[in-house]
Design a protein that fits this description.
Layout (H helix, E strand, L loop, with lengths): L1 H31 L6 H22 L5 H28 L8 H22 L4 E2 L7 E4 L2 E4 H23 L1 H11 L1 H6 L4 H27 L1 E2 L5 H14 L4 H21 L5 H15 L14
Antiparallel strand pairs: 1-4, 2-3
Length: about 300
């Protein structure tokens, strides 16, 4: 039982990271109906930014309180990735918004490859280790819960609540929901559709950056290729939970984390990704809109 509980804690932590990335996917898709496949690489850029900021802080200041260091890492990573995503939306996606559906998809994949190769050239192809930032561990009835796991789960819960409030209770959220329903009508009613979409891309990038910081804290290593696999799993989480639903994105992330960790714990690590994508395939066959997603209504 203790082993099961320990793996459950690990699964929730991993699922929280996937959920943070998945929220960015689901927000962009909810408004413009497009999957931003560069989102996983934005997450990777956020992780590298956090690593670089941490090393700079350690070089300039001999001893920085870890809370201050984490806040600075998160703020800088959010600013940089937001700038990246805003530029990507303006340069690569906006000109193709009215084009045939495959064009933005191809562009998104191209931006993903460009970002991945840019980081590989500038930072090198090898894994970059990170000095331990948060090492405190609590033991409760034989179950080890580290402080970094608590931080990751708390950050995910707080951000989910914050962005749920943003979407459902603010003027920006009303503008986003109006653009989701009918962009042309929203523009006729005075909503700046371009600005709303750009802000949504910025918010998605900021969440991916926070997930990148949590990833660095949790695993202590980052590589230029870390954008692809977590990005695809977060996309899987968004679809599984119901793409377009913020709680669904986090729920999907938790489910992917549970599947991955428990499959690795009780079976083998070789096929953990296969297990996650197999669940996705089953969900798409029997529940295409996801767990919390709304079924699409075709307008006639």
């Amino acid at each position: 039982m203790a082993y099961f509980s320990q793996q459950l804690v690990n699964a929730i932590t991993l699922g929280a990271i996937y959920g943070l990335i998945a929220i960015g996917y689901t927000m962009v898709y909810g408004i413009i109906g497009m999957i931003n496949f560069a989102h996983g690489d934005i997450f990777m850029v956020g992780a590298f930014t956090a690593l670089i900021v941490f090393l700079i802080l350690g070089a300039l200041f001999y001893s920085v309180p870890i809370v201050i260091a984490l806040l600075i890492m998160m703020v800088v990573a959010m600013l940089l990735t937001s700038l990246y995503n805003w530029t990507i939306e303006k340069v690569a996606y906006r000109p193709l918004r009215g084009s045939f559906r495959l064009a933005p998809l191809i562009t998104a994949i191209g931006m993903s490859i460009a970002l991945s190769n840019f980081v590989q050239v500038t930072q090198g192809p090898r894994n970059k280790p990170v000095p331990p930032m948060v090492s405190k561990v609590y033991t409760i009835d034989g179950i080890s819960v580290s402080l970094k796991q608590i931080i990751i789960v708390l950050v995910t819960v707080v951000l989910l609540a914050l962005f749920w409030y943003l979407v459902n209770r603010t003027s920006l959220g009303r503008a986003q929901r109006a653009c989701e329903q009918d962009r042309k009508m929203a523009a006729l009613l005075g909503i700046d559709v371009d600005a709303t979409i750009s802000i949504t891309f910025v918010i998605g990038a900021a969440l991916a950056a926070v997930a990148g910081v949590m990833f660095v804290i949790y695993y202590g290593v980052v590589s230029f290729s870390d954008g692809f696999t977590p990005g695809v799993k977060a996309f899987t989480a968004a679809v599984l939970g119901g793409i377009g639903s913020l709680p669904g994105a986090v729920l999907g992330g938790l489910l992917i984390g549970l599947i991955e960790v428990f499959w690795s714990s009780y079976f083998t690590t070789d096929y953990k990704d296969v297990a996650a994508f197999m669940i996705l395939a089953i969900t798409l066959i029997f529940m295409p809109s996801g767990i919390l997603g709304r079924p699409e209504v075709e307008k006639v």
